[in-house]
Amino acid sequence: MSDALLSLNGIHTHIGPYHILQGVDLEVPRGGVTVLLGRNGAGKTTTLRTIMGLWQASQGTIRFDGAAIQKETTPAIAQREIAFVPEDMGIFSDLTVHENMLLAARGGAIDEERLGWIFGLFPPLKTFWQSAAGNLSGGQKQMLAVARAIIEPRKLILIDEPTKGLAPAIINAMIAALKELKELKEMQTTILLVEQNFSMARAVGDTVAVMDDGRIVYSGDMAELAADTGLQERLMGLSLEAHQ
Amino acid sequence: MSNSLIKPRIERPSLSQIIEAKAPLFLVPVLMLIGLLAIGSGSTWLTLTAAGLAMGMMIFIMASGLTVIFGLMDVINFGHGAFISLGAFAGFTILGLLGGWIESPSIALNLGAVLLAVAFAMLVTGLAGYGFERLIVKPVYGQHLKQILVTMGGLVVTQQLIYVIWGPDEIVLARPAAFQGSFVVLGAAIEKYRVLAIVIGLALFVAMRLVLNRTRIGLLVRAGVQNGEMVEALGYPIKKLFLAVFMVGCALAGLGGVMWGMYQETISAHMGAEVMISVFIVVIIGGLGSIEGCFIGAMLVGLLTNYTGFLIPKLALVSTILLMGAVLMWRPQGLYPVVKAH
Amino acid sequence: MIVKLLSGDRPRSKMLSAVLLLILFGLLFAPFLFPGTRSLDTAARICIFIVLVASYDLLLGYTGVVSFAHTMFFGIGAYGTAIALVNMGASYSAIALGTVCGALVAGAFAFMIALFSLRVKAIFFAMMTLAVASAFLVLVSQLSGFTGGEDGLSYRIPREMTPAFKLVKEKVLGVRLNGKLITYYVVFFSSLCLFLVLLRMVNSPFGRVLQAIRENAFRAEAIGYKVVRYRSVATILSAVMAALAGSLMALWLRYTGPATTLSMDIMVDILLMVVIGGMGSMYGAVIGAVLFLLTQSYLQNLLGLLQESLGSLPIVSEVVSPERWLLWLGMLFICSIYWFPKGIVGRLRGT
Asked: Residues in domain ABC transporter (chain A) (predicted)?
């Protein structure tokens, strides 16, 4: 794929004494949703954090939109129009929902039209606009985390397990939101989504990569993987069943 | 989308939870009341209360920088006291040069001298803070043990440099004429300078709250205290922000140093390290990283020191330690624990 | 035999062994090698500070806990002995009782502090101990009826330990064999024993658990060690050792006051000695204490000479003024933390 927005080549990441990523090669094509699958501890979260510069890669290159970014600081990477929704959601709990969104809008002001669209996707955010974000429920916090990532146009959004620990109804809302986000083609947003929930992955993913033991062990179209149960079993084994 | 299931819902705090959350606000009036009962005489109490509030305000000015620095970057600067001394010396240098303004009966000239001294002290300590952060603090981010040791080393070196520049002796200087002496309110003698200290401290507290709650920088600081990593991931260079906050914190220590120096009318290279004891007690009582807690803690320590200083002079400092113990038994993280995201 | 005395903790470097042997013999024969009151005083202080600094290293270097209350424990030991000697007269039983009581009180204080604040962050513990130790200092300075206040306590010790007592009439090797000499050897051998006990502690299974906790408290807890309990015991042992060193100080000086035992300046000195000598090694305490106290006594002369030769330059001559020796040690301290965190011992061992 020559038109990759983001590509990782031979990325190694060490955390303390542990060698977590052992040569990750990953291509994220422009537009659409790429899903990163894999069991717990495979290195998915570390991959996202390495892209954001929150962990430093000890080896390899990361190219984004034509530039090598593996040596850049986290703020510099974020300023290249990359948004990050971490696993713990990274909500500022003492700040109000409004203030959380205000920080996410780097321009300093929130685009009212876009905010209206977000309120349509996640109604609770409108209701609790002036409440402390720490008082939101887990699902509402997740909505806020995603909303922060889309309040301004971004080229790439990294989302780490948005369905973790959420009730099925909220997962469905999340899927609907991501699908709608995807359909806004004029936004030219690319999403890299870490997921363990295969039904979510299948519902929103266009391409897919599967990780195991710090490497990418499979990558291809989501449709292919979804059709081939044998391949699914081989790649993800028990971890998949546990989530279905 | 099944809206019924994700209906907006938020837990309403119960009355007892509200009281529990607001309880620290009542501590200052309660302490004042206990003081009044223990002292008995209304006018003595009023004098002591004014003294206590003035002392509390000055400690708050010095402690506020320390607590915000900690909240933002998890850094405790054990060398903070050096900036208190440095500020006092820098300010006194200006006051010494403006001897004519200080002795003049004109309030405008008096105030002008004080303002110039304060401005110079804050400039010097702010710049020194820049050097201190780059040379001493930055190389040991995230390593608490080294941080404590190295900032302590910074304290020693800075104290020695003060000796090199200003000599080893204490400097004695009278306050500007307008702030000497006291006036009588309801039969109680109130020192004029204490009123000035209270006014400056209150103004600073209000200004800090406004900056923190109404400006974008303040928003970033508050967010950074909770989750610095996420602030970076949103595209803001938090290290620069931290450097700026560190410099402001040091400048505030300098301001506190000049004010404390004018209060005592004597300054020495060790004065900062001595005041730091109360400063540490205040930030522990308030909850590390919390400005509101710091403010309340400073008032409590100031008042208690003056009340016990009158009732049982020998136990003034020990009483604040006991207060700290009592607060920690009630709230192990201080009055207003700062919730960290990780 | 020697290895056993050292609890198997060899210096592991020829240079270090040579330096340590030099120090040992230097101190053992100090009264004969360096005659004069001032040098004997320096030698005795070195012995006492080696124990004080080593006991602090048990906490800082081996357990990874920063405390600023170490001089408080040192002072409690000194005041224990001093108060007993003042109130019971110059007797050996007063010394024994004062020493034991001092050590017990120090242990009890350490236990209370540990109970209160060891569960929380290192920073918290450091601030807390700083506040408590300062309050203690102020309290001692003010309770003058009991402690002598700012002036401290002067007292007499048993006659056999004073210069007035002559062992033999003639000088031996040019040195008078008097009670002062006896006191010096009491200090020397007590310090040596205490040091060997500390060495035994850190090389015991207990010491190894402490180091495991320092490296990774979370993992140590997961393996099943009660981290808080181990830290508390280390704090108490370190306090007791400091108190014993304090008792030796009280005996040697025949005077105990806030400035010689409790002041924050001494606390900073201890920190400098531990870090410059080498954290996490008992031998670091030896090297640090010797270097620091020699510098304190003799670097000033050197700087004085330097200042005379630079006399004309205003600021430069202030910087090398004899009173500014602490400036140089402070900078050395900061550099040690950055570039050689294992101190001089680490350098000598080539790690």
From this structure: 6-238
Task: Say whether B157 and C324 touch across the interface (CB within 8 A).
Answer: no
Counting one residue from B and one from C, how many pairs have CB atoms under 8 Å apart? 106
Most confident of B18-27, B66-75, C71-80: C71-80
> What confidence category does residue C316 fall into, taking pLDDT thresholds of 50, 70 and 90?
low
As a whole number, mean pLDDT of residues C251-270 equals: 90
A234 shares a domain with A172? yes
- Whether residue A226 sits in one domain with residue A177: yes
Q: Once rounded to an integer, what is the mean pLDDT over residues C104-123?
A: 82
- Cβ <8 Å between B5 and A94: no
| Containing structural domain, residue A106 | 93-152
The full set of domain ranges for chain C reads 2-349
Region A198-227 average pLDDT: 86
- Residue of C72, C140, C130, C58 lying closest to C106 (CA atoms): C72
A87: in domain:
no
pLDDT in the model for residue A238: 45
What's the complex ipTM?
Answer: 0.88
Residue A86 placed within a domain = no
Element (H, E) at A61: strand A57-64
Number of domains in chain A: 2
A42 shares its domain with A134: no
The answer to whether residues A203 and B38 touch, using CB atoms and an 8 Å cutoff, is: no
Work out the pLDDT band at B4, boundaries 50, 70, 90: very low
Q: What is the pLDDT of residues B313-323, one digit of tens each?
A: 888 888 998 99
What CA–CA distance (Å, rounded) separates B115 from B196?
12
Q: Domain for residue A88, yes or no?
A: no
Query: Which of A102, A133, A152 is the C-terminal boundary of a domain?
Result: A152
* Model confidence, pTM: 0.85
Domain boundary among A127, A152, A177: A152
Interchain contact, A92 vs B226, CB within 8 Å: yes
pLDDT at B1: 41
Cβ count within 10 A of residue C150? 12
Among the partner-chain residues C127, C134, C319, the one whose CB lies closest to the CB of B164 is: C319
Q: What would the pLDDT profile of B82-129 be if each residue is shown by its tens digit?
A: 999 999 999 999 988 887 787 777 888 888 888 999 999 999 999 999
CATH of the domain at A70: 3.40.50.300
Q: How far apart are the C-alpha atoms of B68 and A104, rounded to whole Å?
A: 22
Q: Judge residue B110's burial from the number of C-beta atoms within 10 Å of its C-beta, 0-12 exposed, 13-18 middle, 19 or more buried.
A: buried
Domain C2-349 classified CATH 1.10.3470?
Answer: yes
Of the candidate ranges A213-227, C147-161, C317-331, the one whose mean pLDDT is the lowest: C317-331
Q: Tell whether A60 and A176 lie within a shared domain.
A: yes
Using alpha carbons, list the distances in angstroms from residue B207 to B93, B214, B259, C223: 27, 10, 18, 50
Contacts of A148 in chain B (CB under 8 A): 234
Give the angle subtended at the CA of B338 by the CAs of B337 and B340, to the nearest 5°.
130
**Is the minimum CB–CB distance between B186 and chain A shorter than 8 Å?**
no
Residue A133 lies in a domain: yes
Pick the more confident residue, C337 or B7: C337
Q: Which of C127, C144, C326 to mutate to test the interface with B (most CBs of B within 10 A)?
A: C127
The radius of gyration of chain A from alpha carbons, rounded to an integer in Å, stands at 17
Of B139, B144, B281, the CB nearest to C338: B139
pLDDT of amino acid C118: 62
What are the Cα distances from residue A85, in Å, to A142, A149, A205, B120, B340? 9, 7, 17, 45, 18
Examine the pLDDT at A237 and tell me if it is beyond 70: no
* Closest to B318 measured CA to CA, from B304, B328, B335: B304
- Among A24, A10, A104, smallest CA distance to A59 is for A10
Locate tokens 């119960």: which residue? Answer: B14
Q: Do B149 and C271 touch (CB under 8 A)?
A: yes
Q: At residue C97, does pLDDT exceed 60? A: yes
